[in-house]
Design a protein that fits this description.
The protein is α+β, with helices and mostly antiparallel strands and 1280 residues long. Helices cover 25% and strands 27% of the residues. Helix 10 packs parallel to helix 23, helix 15 packs antiparallel against helix 16 and helix 23 packs antiparallel against helix 24. This is WD repeat-containing protein 11.
């Protein structure tokens, strides 16, 4: 068994707080002291510990996977970490090596973030260096691309997930917003500075419940003014005058982050509340207030799959808050609500979140707190908590079905995603349907989106079934306990114990517990709470038994109560030894003989005791007049021949009893108890055999005493005078013909017993605390432990000792508390940080590749496979059209690729049974299978692509006229008609049964059957995080809600004008007129606003007025009044022209917003198509975003062309197959050239992966060029 260098970590440092991250790769990393610990959450195992930092790790970030993966861009575990010395290290986690290392200054890095919203490079890392410097690094080369210094001290930053140009900084007393962030040059501006003025929580609660703002009500008006001062710009807020208000500064703000589900929203976390700010109006639109009896917030996670907030509390509990669905505006103002109608409009309520579940609190103490939490971004229902005492706790959010009417909560029920709508279809009809695949196989739940229905639209639930959420603890991982006092390795590996050997190292702690660490796997396997005081020593009695002793710190009398226990590690049985002793002198040493027959106990001020290890009986206590021992050591080389002779002379039937050998070479180990059925016979044989053993001890005068022990007899054979030059001997070690002494002055003395020569060597390192020979026959290496480090020596052929390697602590590493040999060339060092380092012989490296960690459970992570194997596994799970069935193994690879085939098959076998059952019967074929595989891989780019693609493929199939329907106005009919065009995806009345008041539309049975089948493809709306990719109706409804919310928050004239403009743009002219007429007579713009109100109220779409207004609008735009010109164009229904002008003048986001909110689908599609082209330009370079836009427009052919141009051949081939399954594309003369080109390149891609069968299949689909390539495949793979 070969042991490799590794580290097992212990408690965290205070600066490690929040230094944790759970990446898309499915792996958790967190900072522990100056190390980075990497954990596999599935198997709950530590799989890597990274060691290169000198300072304490303060930041940890996994690289994003938002790019297309292939052989040139393989799946890899890349991690960035930063420390308190300002050094940033980028790691290759699989190999345990650093890719690059760079720094700017020597202060702790405040924040790290990998750039993800761009396609230019995936190596860009943004770092915040104290006090106010933002630096963009090339993480691959360590090159500084640019550095921007701001004027305020900055604490953290957060990116807008919807717009990569937007960035927000949290300062000491302000927030800074930057909207010009680009990777090619340093941001030019210093950003916009805002200060927070926060009313009391009580006042905020009242404001949240206020229904509408009455213009005549002074109380509401004052309240609105107070609300407007939530976010004030450029100058610090003045001290409040009102008695109710209290100023809450940003010094109390714990976290600043953009909302991942709602655009333009930002979250401010305080200990007792969470503020939700809308950046378009700079006001609070929602508050989550903490109950007085609840534990304070410490961190909040915003989910993207659903509008859900997960909050971490000070007591270690996690709470889930789900966005409340409110009665919001969904239709334009009804008739009768004119310009002079004082009836208040429908006002949407504030953003509110309901508490849905909370995990159990943890036992948090002053010495044990939650130091970090991380949410798994792929599933968003898995959370990891990192405790300060090294424990890692994994929680999983689970959903159980309940009857919605039986819930006793005051909140509205939650609903699961809707299943296939088989309404109106008989069982015979279902059996004849081949697509979608209808089966009884349940769909595996892979995340939050599989648990809860979409936040958009109305979910009516499945037969009244709701969802009840709960947290379940799925894993607990322990590290090394704090304050390790002693460490002892189990007996070494021999030929006799090869089949049962486990390299286990015992660690004693200050608290009295003993931990067993497996140095091959790097895991803490067991922990025993044994003693009531500090563990002072551990000695192994066999491979499965150890003896430990403990005592508290002596008082003035110098006497203590010694605790001595014999522990069976298999059963956990604890046997006390010397339990009848009162207070006495503390134990100095306990040494077990090499044959595991005896052990001696040396006391500080009491005669030495000799004990029988098997019977736990005292053999002899030396006379009181005998000198007190300072060091004791058993001989490893005596009595082996006599042992064998005695075993042969004993009963012939018992001489073959299984005796575990754990000593040096062939030295056997006697177990006091065994788990073997032959334990009784073995014990009898042991009782009959008593072998002579030797030990030596030294006294304070350095005199050496040599004893012989046999049975119950002990004799003092030799008394050797002290060695000249030695002071008090503190440690002894004996191996072969060599006996090594170490004294309190750092003198090392080597006795060559065979040559009868002694050699004295000064170490110049002070007190030698411990000496230990390395295991292994003829291996004469040994170490000496000093206060300031460790020396490793070797005894040469000439009998002289020389220093091979040394390490100084705490100069080169943390202070070494104890050291042991984990293997013949593996020193194991325990530091004051309670970290165990299994090191190379030179004591310079304690890391090795993950493949060398001998883990108990195989890690299912495709990122640990080779580049070919990972991509091949993905391809096999996505589709297998070259086979008749779906299989989870591959064969037929070339001889040079047999290792690849073996690795792929081994990984496929790790898939759980539910996934292996579901993938062949995936409901929506290739598209859904690709989405499932993307989530298994944590492939961010693929997840977003296939989520949007599957939605619009289903929409296209469910409602072939969805493009026309999406362009209609928001009416109850279009809302409830189902499919992707509407917001309610389960219709009240199926479309094939709809009727009018006058005529019943009779349809043929065949036509009704087709419409029933179409209902199978209905999908819930896209989640709000996809923003402009949602269908137009959903998008417009949400924008109307937002404008109504802004309307309810009006407090200033500028805010009112902004609301009026938005109402005009959205066609809500009646409410716009009301707002324009609110302008006070004293205002300078009173006359202009009055005229604007008249214009908006009286505008008609007559030819003459249209031409005049269009001319005026054009002139306004040309003169720089873009907003006013666009409003005029919208008044005369020239929204497309307005969007074109906005795009021409660079207002792309505004143009898209206006098109999605107001235009017919055809016109909107033109605007969106132009925007997609803009995303593909070299200046923007976001082709991946353009792809999603084209998908949302239903331009599937264009998507294939674009994927081909981007060389995403595997994704293009799968997308073509998905489109053919959904009948979204057909093979025609126009499409054949593109399809053949894609399949040809995909065949070449598969050839590079070594999969000849799959390549042959796609060659057959690639026309004439494919036939030529097939000939090459036959030659390459030896096909006949």
């Amino acid at each position: 068994m070969k042991l490799f260098p590794k580290t097992i970590t212990g408690p965290l440092h205070l600066q490690n707080k929040s230094a944790c991250d759970w990446g898309w790769q499915g792996v958790l990393a967190y900072g522990c002291q100056n190390l980075v610990t990497v954990v596999d959450p599935k198997s709950v195992q530590i799989i890597q510990v990274l060691d290169k930092h000198k300072g304490v790790v303060t930041q940890v970030k996994w690289a994003h996977e938002n790019y297309h993966h292939d052989l040139n861009s393989p799946y890899s575990l890349r991690l960035a970490s930063a420390d308190s010395a300002g050094v940033i290290v980028v790691w290759d986690v699989a190999q345990g090596t650093s890719r690059s290392e760079f720094s700017d200054g020597n202060k702790p890095v405040q924040a790290l973030e990998w750039l993800r919203n761009q396609d230019a490079s995936r190596d860009l890392l943004l770092a915040l260096h104290p006090p106010y410097s933002l630096i963009l690094w090339n993480a691959d080369t360590g090159t500084k691309l640019w550095k921007k210094s701001y004027t305020e001290t900055l604490l953290s930053f957060t990116f807008d997930p919807f717009n990569g140009k937007n960035l927000a900084f949290l300062g000491q007393d302000c927030i800074i917003f930057v909207n010009d962030f680009i990777i090619t040059k340093t941001p030019s501006s210093n950003g916009k500075k805002y200060y927070i003025s926060n009313p009391s929580t009580q006042g905020m609660s009242r404001s949240s419940s206020s229904g509408s703002l009455d213009r005549k009500g002074s109380a509401s008006k004052n309240l609105a003014k107070r609300m407007s001062r939530i976010l004030v710009g450029e100058s610090k807020p003045s001290k409040p005058n009102g008695a109710e208000e209290e100023s809450v500064t940003l010094n109390e703000c714990l976290q600043l982050s953009f909302h991942h589900s709602c655009r333009h929203h930002i979250l401010l976390l305080y200990a007792r509340e969470i503020l939700i700010l809308d950046l378009q109006i700079n006001q609070t639109v929602g508050i989550i207030a903490m109950d007085r009896t609840s534990s304070p917030f410490t961190e909040v996670f915003s989910c993207w799959q659903r509008d859900v907030l997960m909050c971490l509390h000070e007591n270690g509990s996690m709470s889930v808050r789900v966005r409340r669905k409110t009665n919001t505006i969904s239709t334009p103002a009804p008739e009768g609500h004119g310009a002079f109608d004082d009836t208040p409009p429908n006002i949407s309520q504030d953003v509110a979140y309901d508490l849905r579940c909370q995990s159990d609190p943890l036992r948090v103490t002053r010495h044990n707190r939650v130091y970090g939490a991380s949410l798994f971004p792929v599933s968003e229902n898995n959370v990891a908590l990192i405790m300060s005492d090294s424990r890692v706790i994994f929680w999983e959010l689970q959903a159980g079905e309940v009857h919605a009417q039986h819930t006793h909560s005051i909140t509205s029920p939650l609903y699961p995603p809707e299943p296939l709508n088989t309404e109106g279809l008989s069982e015979d009809s279902l059996n004849t349907i081949t697509f979608p695949v209808i089966s009884d196989v349940p769909k595996p739940s892979l995340g939050l989106s599989d648990m809860l229905a979409s936040s958009v639209g109305d979910s009516l639930g499945r037969m009244g079934l709701g969802v009840h959420l709960k947290f379940l603890m799925t894993g607990l991982l322990n590290g090394i306990s704090s304050h390790i006092t002693v460490v002892r390795m189990c007996p070494p590996l021999t030929n006799k114990n090869w089949d049962v050997y486990e390299p286990v190292l015992a660690l004693g702690t200050y608290s009295g517990s003993v931990q067993l660490a497996n140095v091959a796997s790097g895991q803490i396997e067991k922990e025993y709470s044994l003693h009531s005081s500090t563990v002072r020593g551990i000695e192994w009695a066999s491979l499965k038994h150890f003896v430990s002793y403990a005592f508290p710190s002596p008082g003035p009398s110098g006497l203590v109560r010694n605790e001595l226990l014999h522990v069976d590690t298999v059963s956990g049985r604890q046997t006390p030894i010397r339990s009848n002793k009162d207070e006495e002198s503390p134990i100095e040493q306990l040494q077990v003989s090499y044959l595991k027959q005896y052990f001696v106990i040396a006391f500080k001020d009491k005669p030495l005791e000799l004990w029988d290890l098997r019977s736990h009986t005292l053999i002899r206590e030396l006379p009181r007049s005998f000198p007190r021992p300072t060091a004791v050591c058993w001989s490893p080389s005596h009595s082996l021949k006599s042992l064998k002779k005695k075993l042969l002379d004993s009963n012939a039937d018992e001489k073959t009893t299984a005796q575990k050998l754990s000593g040096e070479g062939d030295t056997p180990s006697f177990n006091s108890t065994t788990a073997d059925p032959s334990a009784g016979k073995e014990k009898k044989a042991q009782d009959k055999v008593s072998v002579r053993e030797h030990f030596v001890m030294t006294d304070k005068d350095c005199t050496v005493f040599h004893f012989i022990v046999e049975g119950s007899a002990i004799s003092d054979v030799t008394k050797i005078p002290p060695e000249s030059g030695l002071t008090r001997v503190t440690s002894l070690a004996w191996k072969g013909d060599f006996l090594v002494f170490g004294d309190a002055e750092g003198i090392q003395c080597l006795w060559d017993l065979k040559a009868k020569i002694s050699r004295t060597t000064p170490t110049n390192r002070g007190w030698i605390k411990k000496i230990r020979f390395a295991p292994g026959r003829e291996n004469l290496k040994f170490f000496t432990l000093h206060n300031d480090g460790v020396l490793i020596w070797d005894i040469g052929a000439d009998g002289k000792s020389e220093i091979l390697h040394s390490v100084k602590s705490p100069k080169e590493m943390a202070k070494v508390v104890d050291v042991e040999w984990a293997g013949s060339d593996r020193p194991a060092l325990v530091t004051s940080h309670s970290c165990l380092h299994i090191m190379n012989l030179d004591m310079r490296h304690a890391t090795s590749p993950i493949e060398n960690w001998q883990l108990a459970e195989t890690v299912q992570c495709p990122y640990l496979l080779g580049s070919k194997a990972a991509v091949l596994v993905k391809c096999l799970l996505q589709h297998q059209p070259w086979l008749e069935g779906f299989t989870f193994s591959v064969d037929g690879f070339r001889e040079e690729d047999k290792e690849l085939q073996k690795a792929v098959n081994a990984h496929l076998a790790l898939l759980n049974s539910s996934m292996q059952t579901y993938l062949p019967k995936s409901q929506f074929g290739t598209a859904e299978r690709c989405l499932t595989v993307a989530r298994l891989f944590g492939d961010e780019s693929e997840i977003h692509f296939w989520t949007v693609a599957l939605h619009y493929l289903r929409t296209n199939k469910a409602r072939p006229s969805w493009k026309e329907a999406a362009s209609g106005s928001l009416t109850p009919m279009s809302e409830g008609s189902g499919g992707g065009g509407g917001d309610r995806f389960i219709p009240h009345t199926p479309s094939f049964q709809e009727s009018t008041d006058l005529v019943v539309l009779d349809q043929s049975e065949e036509e009704q059957q087709k419409q029933r089948i179409r209902l199978l493809f209905q999908d819930q709306p896209l989640e709000r995080c996809y923003d402009i990719l949602c269908n137009n109706n959903s998008y417009k409804k949400y924008q109307l809600d937002r404008v109504a919310l802004h309307d309810s928050k009006r407090a200033t004239y500028e805010h009112t004008q902004k609301c009026a403009e938005n109402y005009i743009l959205l066609g809500q002219t009646d409410r716009a007129v009301q707002l324009l007429l609110e302008t006070e007579a004293e205002n300078d713009t009173y006359y202009i606003d009055s005229l604007r109100a008249c214009l908006v109220a009286s505008v008609r779409s007559s030819g003459a007025s249209q031409s005049t207004m269009k001319l005026v609008a054009t002139n306004l735009i040309a003169s720089g009044r873009l907003s006013e010109g666009v409003q005029l164009l919208c008044l005369i229904d020239k929204g497309l022209d307005a969007c074109r002008y906005l795009q021409t003048y660079g207002a792309w986001d505004q143009a898209v917003w206006l098109a999605k909110s107001t235009l017919e689908f055809g016109e909107c599609s033109e605007v969106m198509k132009r925007w997609a082209d803009h995303q593909c330009t070299a200046q923007v370079n976001q082709k991946s975003k353009a792809l999603l836009v084209l998908l949302s427009l239903g331009h599937f052919h264009k998507v294939v062309e674009m994927l081909y141009s981007m060389r995403c051949f595997d994704r293009a081939a799968c997308f073509i197959e998905a489109c053919l399954e959904f009948e979204a594309l057909e093979k025609t003369e126009e499409t054949d050239p593109l399809f053949e080109a894609v399949f040809l390149e995909y065949a070449r891609f598969l050839i590079n992966l070594g999969h000849g069968k799959a390549a042959s299949h796609y060659c057959s689909l690639a026309g004439d060029k494919g036939a030529q390539l097939y000939k090459e495949v036959c030659i390459l793979f030896n096909y006949n």
